[in-house]
Amino acid sequence: MITVNADKKNETAATVLAHELDAQAYNGNDLGAVYTPKGTTFKVWAPTASRVAVRLYTTGSSKEAGAQELSTTPLVKGENGVWSVTVNGDQKNRYYTYQVTVNGVTRETADIYARAAGVNGNRSMVVDLKSTNPDGWDKDEHILYDDPTDAIVWEVHIKDFSNSEVSGISAKYKGKYLAFTENGTTLNDEGGYSTCIDYLKKLGVTHVQLLPVYDYATVDESDTDTDEFNWGYDPKNYNVPEGSYSTDPFDGNVRIREFKQMIQALHKAGIGVIMDVVYNHTFTADGSWFDMTVPGYYYRLKADGTLSDGSGCGNETASDHLMYRKYMIDSILYWTQEYHIDGFRFDLMGVHDVDTMNAIRAALDTKVTNGRKIIMYGEPWTGGALSTKAVTATKDHLRLLDNRVGAFNDEFRDAVKGHVFNALEGGFVQGGSSRGSIKAGIGANTVLNIRYNQPSQTVSYLSAHDNFTLYDKLVLSVKNDGSYNERDESLIAMNKLAAALTLTAQGITFMQAGEEFARTKQGDENSYISPSSLNQLDWQRTADYADLVSYYKGLIELRKHFKPFRDATTTSAKLINFVEAEEGVVAYTLENVLTADKEWSQIAALFNASTEEKTVTLTPPAGKKLPTEWTIVANRAEAGVRSLGTISGNTVTIPPCSAMVLADKISFDKLALTSDDCVVRVNYQDSSTGKIIDARSYKGTAGSAYVTTENKALLLGYDFECVEGKTNGQFTREPQTVTYYYKKFDGKLSELTIRYLKEGNPLLSSDEESVAPDMKLVLREGEDYTAPIRSVDGMNVDLAKFPFNAVGRAGQDPITVNYYYTEVEKVPLTLHYYNDQGWNRVGVVIYRGAGEDKTVFTAEKGDRMQPDQSLGNGWYTLTLPDIGQLSSLYAVFSDTKGTEDSHFDTKGCPVSREVWIENGKVTGTGTVNVVYLNQNGEVLKTDIKSGKIGTDYTTKQENFSGVQLAASTANTTGLYGQTPVYVIYSYAQPLPEKKRDVPMLPIVLAAAAAGALLVSGALFFAYRKKKKHRIL
Questions:
Q1: How many other C-beta atoms are found inside a 10 Å radius of the C-beta of residue 76?
Q2: Neighbouring-strand partners of residue 103
């Protein structure tokens, strides 16, 4: 750990050191290795060093064939603490490190200014950057827009983009930079739905934002066959592309060339590239290249001389120290000029001081051609308390930033969908709350609840890589039943409403990749080291949710054709005219004073989050008039620049949970805009009344395939009759219509109420209390049902009181199912760790929480693990009593001397109950709960099994006196999973011989539980194949 002894007369010795070293700050632009064929000049700023030398190697690591140390050459100290030397001769592709001696201690470090590196980034490389340019690179140009608010950003991880088996990308490029260079890819290579870069071109986004692509520490690049996964927020070499995404991480040139090929391909597709940069911390501080070069300078320290941790990742860098500020500026300029990067997203921007952020903006503006159009935005928060007196770029200080330095608008995000850290909390789209914050966010918080100077400082978004995907959040907050893979029409409607809000709001539009096809991570809110199989984009969902994709595509088209949505100034925001509306409704009109000569002169936008249709009367601003006729350009099913109907007057009826956008009819007709997209409109119609019950719209290019389906959400109140039109075929230039006809169900319905309770204390005469919200379902009489089980943090279902009617068949009377819960019993935490680090000893620190709320359950420096030969050589085990049931436990593994497991960041890995940790992968314990019931609802027996996730489990029927097995679940055997499984065996008295042809009621019950949030999912929906329950 870095420690600087405090001087009592000063705040810290580190502050004194920083001021002294700032006085020696260097302004040159030639730090690092500057190559020419005649010689390479090495320069390093190391003012506290007594000696610096450069060592040259043939390879990037000592384990490669031909590995050899070539030479060691001392550098000469010059002015401002800069050491330099020129090594004569052509040193191209030589690998190098510096030996830096400070206070008599010599340490070997890579070059913080390195442009290239060997495998795993431990040695820098001398590179001839011109030789890495792909053909045509000199003609590659930035994708630039006049205003940052013109950007529509799609955030994606390199591996997520193409790693799926169905992505259509060739096997050698899956998960690599070069996946972005493949054109013509389709789902399963079947020639239908486009994937990857072709998909992006059709979607219409203007930029991709790449999760970290600099060289990071937490994936082993030398294992080219590994499926290791990490988001990459663990910086190691800031100016070097990550090697695991290249086809050859051992050759430092390859990653550079292939990175440029990716940029080139995106630019050819008309798509800009925004780079996620993480200058706020490094993977480690003690042992980082920065600290080995100038100890104690590049990081902020607390008053006691220990590392400050404002990033929440173990350290925070000091942007307010002049040479780190210079480093950030130099790095940004390098990526912009060498790699043609079009914008930057700053991770935890709130850690950086305002002066540095404005200095980066000024450098781009003045030192890059058209640099004023390079986009900048970041996260205006920190990961903990900071140790600096400098004013930093947090939410409270955004108005001190340049108007072209933006920040994520988390207030608008949470207002739309509910608080990001409370999975069960809903927002506007789930029921109409937070209307005030919605209105403020529509205007980019520049007119109401002001936080920004103008919309160019606001990033309007719904989801990002952090926290739950949008669809997972909707599942959790509305149903909380784990049905992430189930298409739910009510949630799709909310998704569309949320998208309409953000894509018509002021500011920079941003979305997580796959948000537009209901992306799920199965409820994982922090998937930074979760398997690729969980993180990767499931391109199959572009087909399953093609109508949602089409809705996003239409909203993007709409946004691009109405500049007031994209106004970088407050001109349009100040003209937003909100009208009086009922609860659950937000509506406004907006006059176009920017481009009325070539775009629509006025629009109206209406958002109804309630469960009923609402009528709104549009009213003009004082002294203004509204159009007498409107053209609908967005409704609950479709959006774009085509007419979807007209409205006379200013009274508008909006269907439940939907948005409408209207354009002034006169200007709409005058412009007569056309769309390149073809459309198939699907109506779900009541055959008796002719009423359109629901609708979907699909968009595609002429000649491409489309597929329509029945609407299963209607199968509670309706029975399908027939379909008119081509249910599947090819898109044509003329719009096509497919109509599914349904007959209203005239039978009887029954209500099912599921309650989640904790028994009261009879000694205290206390009543039973609810531990989770009730769930209500509507069933058809005679319909089989399964009552879902909710998971409750710190509690388990009491199997001894398992309700007899948890499964059954609906009759005429209402049904109430009561699940009772008890406190989770304390269980041990058992860790099995495979030592692939080559350590002689293995230690582990177990903790929970952060900062003042942090609790450590081991010794501060860790408990020593014991070898476990029962698991094989290299395995170690440790058991701690009574904490395995706790949520949010983390383990940090080390060699007991300060070196931590390189597979994980400084937080370590999440653990609970019993886990196996091997090569960076964490495998937990699954449970299977077996309940034996008789026909009277009595629990005959219970059994709880546990095992390693992914291994087989088997249950068996039991024999009980006087009864025989009547039915059992479909999951009596299977694999242990992350979510607990419930297996039910139902027993009854033997039936008389003549009645034995009566079919037995099949019982299917499963319960999922992840933390405190998930509930029964996969099997809960088993009966929905024919009948769809309606959730009240």
A1: 9
A2: none
Q: State the amino acid at position 314 in one-letter form.
A: G
The CATH-assigned architecture of domain 829-912 is Sandwich (2.60)
Q: How far is Cα 522 from Cα 874, in angstroms, rounded to an integer? A: 32
- DSSP class per residue in 312-381: SSS--B-TTSHHHHHHHHHHHHHHHHHH---EEEETTGGGSBHHHHHHHHHHHHHHSTTGGGSEEEE---
**Is pLDDT above 50 for 1018?**
no
Report the amino acid identity of residue 858: T
* CATH class, range 556-671: mainly beta
The answer as to CATH 3.10.20.320 being correct for domain 749-825+926-1031 is yes
pTM for this model (two decimals): 0.84
**Domain chopping of the chain, boundaries:** 27-132, 556-671, 678-744, 749-825+926-1031, 829-912
Rounded CA separation 1012/399 (Å): 39
Residue 416 and residue 501 in contact, taking contact as beta carbons nearer than 8 Å: yes
Q: So which residues are the catalytic ones?
A: 347, 379
Task: Among 2.60.40.10, 3.30.300.130, 1.10.3720.10, 2.20.25.160, name the CATH number for the domain at 27-132.
Answer: 2.60.40.10
Contact assessment for residue 926 and residue 797, using Cβ atoms and an 8 Å cutoff? no
**What's the pLDDT tens digit per position in 765-803?**
568 899 888 888 889 998 888 888 887 877 889 988 888
Axis crossing angle, helix 435-442 with helix 410-417, rounded to the nearest 10: 130
| Rounded distance between C-alpha atoms, residue 705 and residue 190, angstroms | 11
In this structure, are residues 510 and 458 in contact, taking their beta carbons and an 8 Å threshold? no
Report the alpha-carbon distance of residue 534 to residue 134 in Å, rounded. Answer: 33
Residues 574-623 have pLDDT tens digits of 999 999 999 999 999 999 999 999 999 999 999 999 999 999 999 999 99
Whole-angstrom Cα Rg for the chain:
31
DSSP letter string, 673-723: ---S-EEEEEEEEETTT--EEEEEEEEE-TT-EEE----GGGTTTEEEEEE
- Beta carbons of 459 and 507 less than 8 angstroms apart: yes
